[in-house]
Amino acid sequence: MRAPTIYDLAEKAGVSIATVSRALNAKAGLSAETRDRVLAVADELGYVPNGTARGLSYGATETIGVVVATRSTNAALAEEHESLLFVDAVIRGAERSAQRIGYALLLASIRPRSGWEAAKRMVGRTDGLVVVDRAVSEEAMAWLAARHPVVALAWDSPKGAELVVRIDNVEGTRQLVEHLVVHHGYREIGVVRGPESSPDATARWQTVERSAAALGARIVGTWTGDFSAASGERVARTIGRSGAPLPRVLMCMNDQMAVGVLKVLSAQEIAVPQEVAVTGFDDIIVSRYLSPGLTTVRQPAEELGATAVSSLFEAVRGTHLALREMVLPTELVVRSSCGCAPQPWFDAPHAGVETAGPADTLTGGAHSVAEAAGLAELAG
Amino acid sequence: MRAPTIYDLAEKAGVSIATVSRALNAKAGLSAETRDRVLAVADELGYVPNGTARGLSYGATETIGVVVATRSTNAALAEEHESLLFVDAVIRGAERSAQRIGYALLLASIRPRSGWEAAKRMVGRTDGLVVVDRAVSEEAMAWLAARHPVVALAWDSPKGAELVVRIDNVEGTRQLVEHLVVHHGYREIGVVRGPESSPDATARWQTVERSAAALGARIVGTWTGDFSAASGERVARTIGRSGAPLPRVLMCMNDQMAVGVLKVLSAQEIAVPQEVAVTGFDDIIVSRYLSPGLTTVRQPAEELGATAVSSLFEAVRGTHLALREMVLPTELVVRSSCGCAPQPWFDAPHAGVETAGPADTLTGGAHSVAEAAGLAELAG
DNA sequence: CCGGAGGCCGTAAGCGCTTACCAGTAAGCG
DNA sequence: CGCTTACTGGTAAGCGCTTACGGCCTCCGG
């Protein structure tokens, strides 16, 4: 039982395949009568166009590929990587954006030592690629970018990539420091740094240093973790054992480490935020469920995905040159680990503003309409 | 600058396009010399086969589609739906499995009131579809299944679907009740039920009822939530206000509600598990980060995705008839909210067993080898 | 020395669709 | 009433690839 083709429709409707194609694609130059007849037959036969043939003929796949890294096939360990959840959110945003422009999303994840064949193959199946974080090597990235539209997401300026979409580590961190120093009056800051190899970690740390200095606060100690919760635990224990007085606030350069820190402090019955305040960065989902809720800086992961796809679309269509680099704003998320009063969860601080941001400026009117529909949905 | 085609390779290598094709696909009947020459040219030109053309000619796309539901575009609300994280894990598993068999994964999410056009279109672009939960209506499902290989994932027996992959709610719940009653000796159980409309909620609740009766424990109260954390909070407050004595253990029919319950109990300074034990179901990521860690039943979300894809593959290839229905085992995850001693996070109870399960029985040898490689990766 | 058997590779058809080009028809005009 | 014009819809080419089929050449046995 072969799937019906336009030949079947043409025969049944008594027209040529060209007419069928025109009717299906709502092209001009067809009488309403003919169009309706063809459409009725299509409906009757349950016709679905063969995307492969369409793509070949049309010269475009209307598909965008997303390349992500898989840290490990083992969930228990993978959770230690913020990137896992981050990537899921990026994919969600990318899918949303793709659907809005009528594109499909093809997914490939690159395993640690498995080479980037999967990404290579996607070049022949998509109209463009979104490469997340550092899913492939610099050389691979250059190879891909040389022959396909590619946007690098959350990746600082890889060689060869035309388009880059990333977050503003600086402004978010600055706001957080300001909140701690100006609003809460904390003067003594301890910092749990991330790995040297991470540009994010470095950017955040440097900003903490500068902002603190500018606002008259002191960095009273720094410890280095590897972005994992376990490393946060280790740091917290080290601090405890040192016997030195606690800093007034411990700024962790990501949420995972903050989670580990909170865990140890809770076990040692050190009150947060009364004795020591704790902050993170990323706003992973877990953060709001901790007690106290973690004050952090939100990374707009979904927006990153959405923006990457829409700017790729612009680039492919060539309507107007997309910006080479797009920097999405981060957002201070105040919960109670910094010393502020707790909020109930369901009044999430950023409810309703989720889908705003630069993506809107790219696709203009249609986008806004879709957004409006999205918001209406919340009310219903 | 057009991408090179086999015509370009053929010309440059001085052979016909048929020979190029044979060389690229490692077909027999080619001299090693010719093959190497073609391959060298392909490499030099950075050739990537056009997947569209290949698919059209080959008669198969080597792509599998995954259809999921998007509850809302708003993250703050979406988090209230366990399905969001669940779906991410399913996708991850599906991708892993797809990659193993050399297939690509196409993603489509269906928005609440947006129709299922996206799923329909996938019929013409994939070799099979995985429909998660109840992403499309029963009628839509029947339509899809009538003309395309479809597997229903975590969906109780939709009309028309040839293949079903779901979890064993009964056994997991039974084990949990047994743990509470036999191991901890709890006799008085309160139950926070899920929505009537959810087959999962119903199956779990009925199993609690039966197992409790069989083991000589009493259900001393039931409350009904809607699977959201907020509804868990409401239930916990209701219980508090009632003034009645607390049950020894509160079994929540999913983790989200348990999270809400724990939040209220913590605010009211009721000790968990000393005064009342609490359990969940699903093992969402958040659960291990709560204090106390939530005792729950793990849903093998990744395995569901992986199994769905591999069984779809079997069905498409028709090598041997895949089972019509596959039921994956759930797993009791004991943390401290039931009264057991706390475990450190990084010794996750199920570390290393992540990828075992029925999926292995489907693809046999090759699968096992791949699995072994996956585990080796953890050591490295 | 000839016929047959393989090995190797080229020729060409065709996958299902889009679209440039052209043909036929009816309407409009002088 | 003949010719132009505007519509409508048909014809056919071609997107890049796979593969059935067949041809040529070499090698072998009789």
Written description of the protein model:
The structure is a homodimer of 380-residue chains. The first copy, chain A, is of the alpha/beta class and 380 residues long. Chain A folds into 3 domains: 6-49, Orthogonal Bundle (434 Repressor (Amino-terminal Domain)); 63-161 and 301-328, 3-Layer(aba) Sandwich (Rossmann fold); 169-295, Rossmann fold (3-Layer(aba) Sandwich), CATH 3.40.50. Chain A has 14 helices and 12 strands. A 6-stranded parallel beta sheet of chain A has the order 2-1-3-4-5-11, with helices on both faces. In chain A, strands 7-6-8-9 form a 4-stranded parallel beta sheet, with helices on both faces. In chain A, helix 8 links the parallel strand 3 and strand 4 (150-153). In chain A, 51% of the residues are buried. Mean pLDDT of chain A is 85; it is low at 346-380. The interface between A and B is large, with 74 and 74 residues. The first copy, chain A, binds a DNA duplex (30 and 30 nucleotides) through residues 5-7, 15-22, 25, 27, 29-31, 34, 49-50, 52-59.
